[in-house]
């Protein structure tokens, strides 16, 4: 049996002002937002709500420590709705605060107690990459065990996913690049997942086409031209989120997590480091499955022969976000085996979605080639 779901109601607004008028945020609401986003887009808003400036609790990828510190600080406040306006970090953190019980976080991720959602959840992305607004996944760095892990349960779906292109209009190019490449990889990994359906593949393919076509225009006309395509990139990110929310991501994400957790490499950047080498390996292991269809789609978009897609996509993406070998991130040769063991023992949820089986030796060989 195959199934396909879109859980949140997706709402689109032309402006932040229109969003505020619709949702009437105030007393009894918990709002996660950075001070900079609030000052730039929501001046004088949220005065009656409890506002959490998540940057006060740390920078970079979300952690269990961040969640528990926020929980301790707001424990005396009663709220019925949770709003998160931000990137993937804050969306993933905020999801956990829609639950009846959030801490201890490690016990939550280990499912040692019943997971119950008892608050309305409204997610508003300010990047064009995570797709978290439409998924049931919260991904944290669990500092107690020194790895990134995902909790995927239906209780983490938002009630509303809200898209406002205005919120990504001032996104610096580096963050635009890392987030949109993350969305591209979501679309590709979900397309080749064994859990993919004809419905999820529609969303995967559309996201691929929108993102890669946008990149071609950016390379041709310059970085500032992206402002004409912000709505496309935001929608493509949500399409990719719907696709991987149903079909899952796989080895690219699994192999990027230890690097992100250990050396604090931005998530989209870490994914791109892994992406083409994983797919070249898939191609060598099983060239005649769904990857054949993927390659044909990519070749059509990139205007090249099917057998050249990974060479051409590297050329394209390196113009958006240049790659570096792993050793330039201070990764050591000893890390490669540690990372491999982490992937094989801690990331089974993702590795189950691989297009072809990757054993320990193959995972290590991919890391080694990228070193």
From TrEMBL:
GO terms for molecular function: alcohol dehydrogenase (NAD+) activity; metal ion binding. The keyword Metal-binding does not apply. InterPro entries: ADH_Fe/GldA, ADH_Fe_C, Alcohol_dehydrogenase_Fe. Keywords: Oxidoreductase. Belongs to the iron-containing alcohol dehydrogenase family. The keyword Chloroplast does not apply. This is 4-hydroxybutyrate dehydrogenase. Residues 177-371 form the Fe-containing alcohol dehydrogenase-like C-terminal domain. It comes from the Bacteria. It comes from [Clostridium] fimetarium. Residues 31-165 form the Alcohol dehydrogenase iron-type/glycerol dehydrogenase GldA domain.
């Amino acid at each position: 049996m195959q199934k396909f779901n879109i859980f949140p109601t997706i709402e689109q607004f032309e402006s932040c002002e229109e969003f505020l008028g619709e949702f009437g945020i105030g007393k009894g609401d918990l709002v996660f937002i950075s001070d900079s986003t609030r000052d730039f887009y929501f001046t004088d808003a949220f005065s009656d709500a409890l506002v959490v400036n998540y940057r006060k609790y740390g920078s970079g990828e979300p952690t269990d420590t961040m969640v528990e510190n926020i929980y301790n600080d707001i424990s005396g406040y009663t709220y019925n709705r949770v709003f998160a306006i931000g990137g993937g970090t804050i969306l993933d953190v905020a999801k956990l605060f829609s639950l009846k019980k959030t801490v201890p976080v490690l016990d939550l991720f280990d499912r040692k107690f019943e997971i119950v959602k008892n608050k309305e959840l409204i997610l508003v992305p300010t990047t064009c990459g995570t797709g978290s607004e439409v998924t049931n996944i919260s991904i944290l760095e669990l500092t107690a065990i020194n790895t990134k892990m995902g909790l995927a349960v239906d209780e983490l779906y938002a009630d509303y996913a809200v898209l406002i292109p205005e919120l990504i209009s001032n996104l610096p190019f580096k963050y635009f690049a890392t987030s949109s490449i993350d969305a591209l990889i979501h679309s590709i990994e979900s397309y080749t997942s064994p859990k993919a359906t004809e419905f999820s593949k529609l969303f995967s393919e559309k996201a691929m086409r929108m993102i890669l076509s946008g990149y071609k225009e950016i390379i041709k006309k310059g970085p500032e031209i992206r402002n004409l395509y912000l709505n496309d990139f935001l929608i493509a990110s949500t399409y990719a989120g719907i696709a991987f929310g149903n079909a899952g991501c796989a080895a690219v994400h699994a192999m990027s997590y230890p690097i992100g957790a250990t050396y604090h490499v931005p998530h989209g950047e870490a994914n791109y480091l892994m992406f083409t080498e994983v797919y070249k390996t898939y191609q060598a292991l099983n060239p005649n499955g769904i990857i054949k269809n993927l390659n044909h789609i990519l070749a059509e978009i990139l205007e090249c022969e099917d057998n050249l897609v990974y060479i051409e996509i590297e050329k394209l993406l390196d113009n958006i976000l240049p790659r570096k070998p792993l050793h330039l991130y201070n990764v050591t040769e000893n890390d490669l085996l540690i990372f491999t063991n982490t992937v094989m023992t801690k990331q089974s949820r993702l590795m189950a979605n691989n297009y072809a089986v990757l054993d320990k030796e193959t995972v290590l060989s991919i890391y080694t080639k990228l070193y």
